Amino acid sequence: MHTRLKHQIEQLKQNSSDGNYPLDALLAIVSKTYEETDHEKHNQEHDIQRMSEELQTLNRQVQRESESYLPMIMKNIIEGVVTYDENGQILHFNLAMEKMFQASRKNMVGCSIESLSQADTETFPTIYDQYFNGTSTGPAYETIAVNNAGDVFPIDLTISKVVTQRKTTFIAVVRDITERKNEQKALIEAKENALQAALTKTNFLSTMSHEIRTPMNAVIGLTNLLLLESPRKDQIENLKTLKFSGENLLVLINDILDYNKIEAGKLNIEQTEFSLNDVIHNINKSLNMRACDKKISLHIVTESGFPNIIIGDPTRLSQVLLNLIGNAIKFTESGKVTLTITSKQDTDERWAINFAIEDTGIGIHKDKIDTIFDNFTQSDTNTTRKFGGTGLGLSITKQLLELQGSSIQVKSILGQGSIFSFTLQFGTSSENSTKARNTHGDQDIIEYFKPVSVLLVEDSLVNQMVATKFLTKWGLAVDIAENGAVAIEKIKENDYAVVLMDLHMPVMDGYTAVKNIRELPSEKYQQLPIIALTASTRASDQSDLDDAGINTYVSKPFNPLELNQRIAQFIGT
Questions:
Q1: Which of 333, 386, 417, 529 has its CB surrounded by the most CB atoms within 10 Å?
Q2: Is 193 within a domain?
């Protein structure tokens, strides 16, 4: 029984005094209950209708706002946006597209999307085709388009496919990438110009190196020859001064060339066996006269225990030490300069060797310590005027150490002196215990060879004379060719123990000559020792030497001892 009806009957029973209740009263209660139910239902239906009307009104409002919001977005977005249906018919065309293609939305809506692809008719339609069967956003695609004015321009295109129950719509986002392409083109041109400028600078420096070193070879070479011919005491002093000045000029030239190599990233660190004692001895010998001229003492203090034969780059170690000790001597008016060498064995195969150069010179202000390692910089402009120098030495020293995984430390007190120190890692050689090596004076011994013929390929008459004088002093028979073409003919006709080859010559340069020699049809031409004797900067690049088939090289102005030792590698004494 319905709860409400049951409740009314219970009330009727309670109101009846004798326990009997009439049927009319019961029906009246039932009728009233139905009436109340109908009224309540009517009220609910009215509320539902009112709420439905409110929802419809709200929905229409949201739809109107949405419809006005989307065009606003399409109008203000900076990128071109175009929508089209499955048939390729344009549905929307925003303001950015109008500006980009110089076409009005009114004229474009209803047109085919392929009308935008006139400039790339072969590939452009396929971009759309690949998305007609797809369901997701495609990757950005670069192509070209043409506007109504006939201007062709590059675009970046992204197409998305939107699928609903009613229809499929494609949304294309178009970006004019003319500016980006121009920037890329400018960057490429700038890079090419920079590479060309670097190549031009390299060629200029190589040419200048050759032009400067060629006469310097004659000056220093003839000075060395005169020193060997028992000059008078007063002549010895003049000749040593001349030699010292020439070698100083070479240091400046080498600093500039090394700076250029480091800047270009073309300076390589070698790993070769060498005697540390020999390096130190040669540095002492090279700088001792400079110290004596200033009446200051040069001390070298080494601890015992570290191996003599180590593996590293002796040339760059010598360059660093010559720069630092040379600077110490330059900026010390009185007192002494001391090189202290200490070592620590890291492993069985690695040694950490510390080099400290201490002077009693002018010192450096603490605020200037960092700046002295900048290119072309000294601690004070007065320093340059008083002591000279390019300001490149310390910069190159710092960079050479960094290339070897090290760094330079500086302690200095203005007016009292400075300490420059660094630590380098070296490998050890098994030859330390098995092979006797030359040290100190032994390395300075000039070898005198058995009488064999060597070919000197050199276009400079002065350099021919200087080299010939040294070679004949060492017991060698010298034949001369003035260029590479003549050299090839002489090599075909004669047997030479060694060929000394200049690289920059008229008619045929040294690189071409060596290449042609190596291609001659006999094994002896493959085995013929060829030493580049050159003022070129390219010769210091081992890859260039290997590619050309050159065994080794000696730089001009050549050190007679170095040339002698290079020849001794191939000729017996």
A1: 417
A2: no
